[in-house]
Amino acid sequence: MTSAKTGGAPPRRPGGALRAAVAPLLGLAAAAKHAYQLYHPPRPAGPARTPADKGLPTHHKTVVASYDGVPLRAWVVPGAGPHTVVVCHGMGRTKSMTLGHIALLHRAGHHVVAYDMRNHGDSGADRALGRMAERYISDLRDVLYATAADPRLRGGAIALYGFSFSTWPALQVVPRSRVPVAAVIADSGPAYDVPAGLRHFAALRGRTMRRWLRGPLTLAVQGRAFEFFAMRMLGLADWPPDLSAYDTRLMFIGSAEDTFVRPESVERTARHYPGAEYWTAAGAPHMRGVRFDAAEYEKRVLGFLAEAFDASEKAAEVGDHD
Asked: Which residues form the AB hydrolase-1 domain (predicted)?
C-alpha cells in the first residue's frame, strides 16, 4: 500500500515505445520553432559595443524600411573618403560583430555604414512568416539609397560587405538597386545550395537536442522539416542572381575551419561568377578570418576594394566624357 505521507510514487518517465512515437512530432515542432528563430533570433542582453568604444567618430542613423516601416538602426563612421562600404552582419548577430572590420575599413580611409538587420540588435521587429528574403533585400536597398543621399559621405562609390546570411541579400540587391554597387565582399557565405545549407544547419542544431530526441528518424524529420519551414519563410527566388549585366566586382571569402558554411560551398558560389575572386582564410572559424588570418585578410580585402573603387572612378570619368 502507498502511505498518505508520501503521496504516492513519483510519475514514471514515458516508456521507450511512447518516446519513440512522440519524438518525431517533437522534432517537427522544434524545426518550426528554429526556422522562425532563424529570422527572429533572441536579442542579446546588455549594452552593445559601438565604434566610439574604439575611438572612431560615430553618427547614429535610422532608415525606415520602405517594405513595411520597420526602423533600421545604423552607424555612420566617416572616413577620409570619398568611398563608402556598407557593412551587413551575420544572422543572429548585430552590427557590433563588425567592429573589427569597421576599424579596418576606417584606417584605409573609407566611410562605413553598418546597420542592424530587421529583428536584430537595435532595429525594429516584424512577426512575418514569409517573404523574408524580399524584406532583407528591400531593407539593404533602402540603406543603399540613404547612404548615397547622405551629404556627409561625399558621393563616392559604394561597396557592400556581407557576412554569412547577409551575403545573400548583398548579391541579390545589385540588380534591384538604382544606386550602382562597385563591389561586394561576401565573407563566410553564401552557400550555393541553400536547401543543403539549411539541412546542415539543422544537423548542427540537432546535436544540442536531448539525447532521446537524437534518433535517426527524429533527426531526419527535424532536418527536412527545418529546411521546408525555413525555405518557405525565406521565399528565396532567382538564386544565384544573374549579375552578368553589371560591372560589380565580387570577392568571396571562405573560413578554413568553418563548421556552419563550409568553404567549399562558398567557393562553388564564387565559381558561378566569372572573374570573381575567392580566398580561404587559414585557421579561421565562421566569420573570423579578420582575427585568425589578420595580415592576409587585411591585404586581400583592402587591395580588392582599392582596385574596385579605382575601376569605378575610371568608369565614372569615361561616362562624364561621353
From this structure: 85-287
Amino acid at residue number 228: F
Distance CA 293, CA 290 (A): 6
Contact between 287 and 188 under an 8 Å Cβ cutoff? The reply is yes
Here the cell at position 12 is 514514471
8 A C-beta contact, residue 108 and residue 305? yes
266-315 per-position pLDDT tens digit: 999 999 999 999 999 999 999 999 999 999 999 999 999 999 999 999 88
The answer to whether domain 56-191+249-321 has CATH 3.40.47.10 is no
Domain range list for the chain: 56-191+249-321
**Helix, strand, coil percent content, the chain, rounded in steps of 5:** 45, 15, 40
Q: Is the pLDDT of residue 114 over 50?
A: yes
Measured torsion, CA atoms of residues 135, 190, 90, 118, in degrees rounded to the nearest 10? 0
Using one digit for the tens of pLDDT, what is the confidence trace for 7-48?
A: 555 544 555 555 556 666 777 888 899 999 999 999 888 788
Question: Cβ of 220: how many Cβ atoms within 10 Å?
Answer: 16
Could you tell me the pTM of the whole model?
Answer: 0.89
How is 257-297 classified by DSSP, letter by letter? T-SSS-HHHHHHHHHTSTT-EEEEETT--TT-HHHHTHHHH
> Cis omega before residue 78 (within 30°)?
no
Closest CA to 156 of 86, 52, 210: 86
